[in-house]
Structure formats: structure tokens, C-alpha cells
Amino acid sequence: MKMVGINIKRLRQAQGYSLKEFADKVGVSASFISQVETDKISPSLSKLKDIADTLNTTIGLLIGETNQPHTSNSSPVVRRNERKHTDHLGKGVNIYLLTTPDPNKQMEPLYIKIQQNASSGEKQYQHFGQEFVLVLKGKIEISLNETRYILNIGDSIYFNSNTPHSFKNLGDEVAEVVWVDTPPSM
Questions:
Q1: Quick one: which of 104, 100, 103 has its CA closest to 74?
Q2: Domain ranges, ordered by start, for the chain
Q3: What distance in Å separates the CA atoms of residue 179 and residue 98, rounded to the nearest whole number?
Q4: pTM of the predicted model, to two decimals?
Q5: pLDDT tens for residues 8-52?
Q6: For 33, phi and psi rounded to 5 degrees?
Q7: Pairing of strands 85-89, 140-144
Q8: Fold topology of 80-182
Q9: What is the CATH number of domain 2-62?
């Protein structure tokens, strides 16, 4: 996560935001942004999305994905041990990018490991787009507005991202899911 804080600070300063100005735009305290930038705390997935949106970038770029599309000389294959990822995003949520960087891609497939009792955070979040989730292992709950959906191995869900949503692991093991966002937010 150290790279995330460094990238946030670099982009914030390049765009001319003071800590306070930036924190106000994101809707958090300047102390919170300072602690994220110095790797003292990790933001929840929804807060990292707010930070990325405010900086006009993607979560993928914040975690170190380059914006270079693959060329005819490079492979479109992402090997398991070469996936870009964030560790412990939102305390127990690990997100792995499943595709190579490409500024023209129209969806972002992710492999997410959700530790026991981990969640996307206390608040629901929403944004433009659509999402698809397939549970590979474990049991998760996805809340859309006030409705809660329990998904087990093999279950899937598709929803509009502008619906306030959140997720959490309900099982007693690590849950593993494939999560696809469109348009890409990572």
C-alpha cells in the first residue's frame, strides 16, 4: 500500500491541492489524507474510489498499474504471479487486477479475496456503471440499497453501480470472487 500513498501525494501536489483542499473535496479530514499518504492507514475501497475520482485517475493507476496498453510485442496475458494488487484494502480486502493496462478497455475484471468478517466499509457507495460478481469460494453478502443478497459458491449478481451498494464476507473462510466493473474504475 505504500505505493498508493506515494501516488496520491504526487498526484495531489501535481494538481495543486493542499492537504485541506483535497480532503474537503474527498469529504474526509486532512489528517486522514496525511495518514493515507504516509502509509499509516489504508482507505476503504469506497474511499479509495473517491480519492481516485477526485484526482481524475483510477484505482489501478494509484496502486501502480501503468497506463501503457499492450503492443504487438507484448502479451495480453496476465500471469497469476504477475497480477498488480492492493493488499488489505479496507482491512482484509485484497484486489488483484486480471488484465493488462489499456486506456481503451471498457471493463475491469478483478479477482478479490475477502477475509473473514471483512467488508467494503461501513457506508454504501455508488458510481456510474454496472457490476457483475461471481462467487468462487465462500459466502458473501451484497447490499443494494436496503436489500441484502446472500451469495454462495457459484452464485452471481449483476447490478447498476449507481445503486448504493456494499459487500461483506459472511462465511468462516476467505471468500474469493470475480468482480467486473464497467466502465473500468481500477
A1: 100
A2: 2-62, 80-182
A3: 10
A4: 0.68
A5: 988 888 888 999 999 999 999 999 999 988 888 888 777 888 898
A6: -60, -45
A7: unpaired
A8: Jelly Rolls (2.60.120)
A9: 1.10.260.40
